[in-house]
Amino acid sequence: MTAPRRRPSLRAMQAAADFVPPMPRPPAQPWRWLPSLILGRGDILRAFTEDAYRRQVIPLRLPGRGLVIANHPDVVRHVFVAHAENYERKSWFMEQALEPVVGDSLFINHGEAWAERRAVIAPALHPSRIAAFHPHFVRAAEELAGDLARAAPGPVDVAPLFAAATTRVMMLSLFGEAVPREAAAAVAEAFAAYQAAAESVDLRYLLGLPPWLAGRQSRRARLAAARLRALVAQALAAVPEPAPPLLAAMRAARRPDGTPVMDAEALANEVAMMLLAGSETSATAMTWAAYLIAAHPATGAALDEELAALPPGAPDAEQAAGLTFARAVLSEAMRLYPPVAVLSRQARAADRIRRFEIRPGDTVMAVPWLLHRHAMWWDRPHAFIPERFLPESARRQPKFTWIPFGIGPRICAGAAFGMAEMLVFLAVLLRRFRLGVPKGWAPAPQCRLTLRPKQGMRLLLAAR
Ligand code: HEM
């Protein structure tokens, strides 16, 4: 007689049906992650052991240097909100990594210089101003759809095309018609080359090791940075007066004594920063979202249904903002694949985080990749479940467990811009194409300045 088979629980059945998209397999032996971090030229995601997805604080002591990962919402709040002034400075590696491209821009600056530039740039990107950028979103999305139609049915590596399209949005926003479309692709390409070549984004820098140990910037990285700077200078020189409002606001900003907040060099630095911060991130988020939609037909069908309720053509700003399910898909994509996977800071003064002493100069990080997949805060944390971001469920999610745009005073200045832009892109693209994943192919996330798919993002595009 055979024993009665136990019925699987509902939870197990759901789990079996879950779509768990690719992630690096956590290493089996926890004690090896320190040497693998130091010696590896790989990436930090591969060093996270299984317990990193459950721990609340992860300390690492290196000779003469400390590093702590804040991995609990209360600890994140302590560092990035309650004691933000002690941790306002970006980590040394981040300053080094971006300086050749963005100079002293606010992204890596701190103190007075950060505050006065943030006060110019953040209001220009305020949610109340976003509708003015909507025509740029639509135009770049339609140009992108045209490129994809020429490349279809594929497989097409959409990552560089998405990066060129979001750079195009930033260039239209900053320079208007003065700069041709090809310049956007050139900027996106140069930045991709910089990311690929920059020694400074590898793990040894991430740990804040001194330059003699961490290695110097490669020649290729320096060339890519120089190329980016030249493209920015050309674009700035080409813009006629009156400049588009975003650039005009930056040029016009004055201190109380009447001197400009940004001289020519500072302006070029901020423009370079906006081109990168405003395009790499949205492109990365959309790249992963497109993959998840392609790989999970039920999500594609639900999106089709939502879009079918809209009149034909590209959505207007209000219609795009009302795409609740598309917003949930993007939010879930940024949970699983946060474009900025690591936020790192250096401590100004001594502090204590839980039972760990923080010394001046120590690195403290929040790692959205870990927090977003933390076993304490997420049900089936590695599974793709966009419904968790529908308004009802999203309201129940504890604060500071989903931080793709960062948090505290340095939170992303372009979050509303980025979200509005991605909703328009998604609507335009999904109306034109049905997405699919080539048989046997899977992307591999790799943490550099942004969380890129290591071998690009190859998708199939069937015209509708
Ligand atoms: C999906 C899209 C985006 C994501 C995920 C994203 C993410 C982030 C994150 C995580 C930070 C903070 C980094 C840190 O604290 O270390 C940041 C900062 C920033 N982002 Fe975004 N971003 C996006 C789009 C944009 C766009 C479209 C713009 C501009 C139009 C923009 C402009 C900025 C600026 C200026 C900062 C620096 C803020 C400061 O240091 O005060 N971002 N972004």
UniProtKB/TrEMBL annotation:
- Coiled-coil positions are none
The protein's superkingdom reads Bacteria
Q: Which SUPFAM superfamilies match?
A: Cytochrome P450 (SSF48264)
Q: Which residues bind heme?
A: 412
So where does this one cross the membrane? 407-430
Task: Enumerate the InterPro entries for this protein.
Answer: Cyt_P450, Cyt_P450_CS, Cyt_P450_E_grp-I, Cyt_P450_sf, Cytochrome_P450_Monoox
What keywords tag this UniProt record?
Heme, Iron, Membrane, Metal-binding, Monooxygenase, Oxidoreductase, Transmembrane, Transmembrane helix
Q: Which cofactor does it need?
A: heme
Q: Pfam families of this UniProt entry? A: p450
Question: Which molecular function GO terms apply here?
Answer: heme binding; iron ion binding; monooxygenase activity; oxidoreductase activity, acting on paired donors, with incorporation or reduction of molecular oxygen
UniProt record similarity statement: Belongs to the cytochrome P450 family.
> In its UniProt entry, what is this protein called?
Cytochrome P450
- List the source organism: Neoroseomonas alkaliterrae
Q: What is the lineage of its organism?
A: Bacteria, Pseudomonadati, Pseudomonadota, Alphaproteobacteria, Acetobacterales
